[in-house]
């Protein structure tokens, strides 16, 4: 963390901030609300433009809206194109035009193109700053073009080539340097360089970067024309968001960000909680059908949390393992399901067996006036086995079913499913109890 | 996915596999057990060595152990140093020497160095293939050294410089290309290039790559000597593992990998499940102290799943949001806790209010012979508010407390805590019930 004394005069501040990275400038800007104007004065609008996209979303929007039009225009000028696109998407669609009209024609057209891609496609996250040359030129020509077009803002680790207009491959700068001027580009360009299509899913593009160990992945359209690149750094940001999404999905959160107001975040989490209340009333209704069994065997109530908890635990394990598999690897459905169900059977059986022994021991040792403690222990054990297995079965199959239906497999997690599992577990518990304790 | 007809003669197979990426070779090797020898014959040991590290861990170990010594030696020769280190760590420590002695002296020393770093430090994941030059040389000298030392296997997007022996900065290859031969390196090398210390945490190194948007992060030792680099691609792999760890932590899994045997994985998940059984017996014991209240108000049982479920839901939300914050951002503890508790109060109150209304409506409409349905509804409502708030409080505070104690904050999730929350929720429920229904 950087410590800056903002009481210094601007000239000294300028010196102190000279080599601070944009992302650290952003932190300073966020943390020192009272010195924001002074900070901008010290670093200049250009560097502030570079730092701006590192600010939290809320602050970006609020700060931008307060600026006068010429300041807005000035600020936007210093955004890179992909950042500009991300920035515009922070605003409601009806305001986009308002921002776009402040851009120069060329930049506006490129951003409009980026905005036109679907949100979860490779095209939408690609950056249009890349070098793209004719493969029929010479090493010497390409080298001098690289030197001429190289700009401080762009990261160019790999340059790309087309034949006619179609993408043919990539060449690492490092290989261009060691190439002799007389070499034909066709001989050194890697024609098997991996690429993604603009409408491929983001996740699949990220997986390509990871699997093929490239630092830049080119994105081409359906005519095989290069339209953008995704760098490994971009992929890191995407993975971070993705990771957060997955964990939030598991617990039915929608916005973990510290930036939005607590009240707003509270309202985002509430629907799920309330839905869960309603679902639990369905469970209560269902339980009333067993009121005779419960009335005459109140001891069953003691072990209700155990049945619910164990079914819940094994269920979330199965869901998580299945979602992780679907997300990060190409798992083979039948093999995965078979293996997971095998694990579920083993673990349910062992837990049930331990349950019987421990419940019997507990009832035997505790002073109480319940008869049939052996039968109660059996009820708990059998219910554990069955409810755990059912819960695991749901957890393993549901993500696949959702994916098959075209839905997001992550919807399999969350309070709704856990309530459904509660429902099944209690149904099994009291059904087994009714059969063993009442009818026998 | 690549489709290869393995019935083809080796010469044709060689042609078909010519441009297949190592990671795809690995998939083919995994999926076509009966053609493994033929595949190796077609691609040669060198390319097999490159593909080997993409195989699943289990297969790497099993396959390696079956090889004769000279084949082992040959295979190891084609591993990159950081991969070699990862590979060796798949084996138990007592076997490491066995592998190390098959390496040439220079490679052995470098790998031993890598193995010496703690598992979660930047040093342990760094790769020792980098270019490191004296900053007092000329652009021309450096360029010719890059050309000479450049090797197909290394990714060199950034080269690094030392003055004497200490690290002074980095220079992107792209900037080297555009530099005029007469320029002093001191003027073009970025002396603010971000770096990590070898004993920094992996997570902090990854965050640097992400925040500073660099494709390579140099790792230096405490004498400021460059000892390795971490690329953005490496960071992607680490983030993937990290992501999996976090989700597994949330559900107390330890190995989601498809690769180990189901029985082994079953045994890894079992301890938590069994611990949960035991903890639930503690809950049962606790519940017996309320047996009078339960006996005379069996209707309470109907709403027990609601209390448990709601406290559980809000608790996992709080834990997840706190762990995500601690992991991905530098959250300010007091601010985060204050905000989260505000959200918890709002959501508990609203859920409790809805609970009262819905339970009252339910009891009013359902045919039953319970008296005091207004009091029962109050008990459920008050218990919801209190138990949800307590559960959220634990979820927000525990990760901070664990971190303060030097433990992993992810331990806050998992079955133990959910059982503790169950315990608190039921205690509150039956205590409130005893006060309102029995003593009043």
Automatic annotation (TrEMBL), chains A, B:
GO molecular function term, any single one: magnesium ion transmembrane transporter activity
Segments passing through the bilayer: 270-290, 302-326, 341-364, 376-402, 414-438
UniProt xrefs under SUPFAM superfamilies: CBS-domain pair, MgtE membrane domain-like, MgtE N-terminal domain-like
SMART domains (UniProt xref): CBS, MgtE_N
This protein's record includes keyword Cell cycle: no
PROSITE patterns named among the record's database cross-references: CBS
Main location: membrane
Keywords: CBS domain, Magnesium, Membrane, Transmembrane, Transmembrane helix, Transport
Homology family: Belongs to the SLC41A transporter family.
Protein name: Magnesium transporter mgtE
Organism: Acholeplasma hippikon
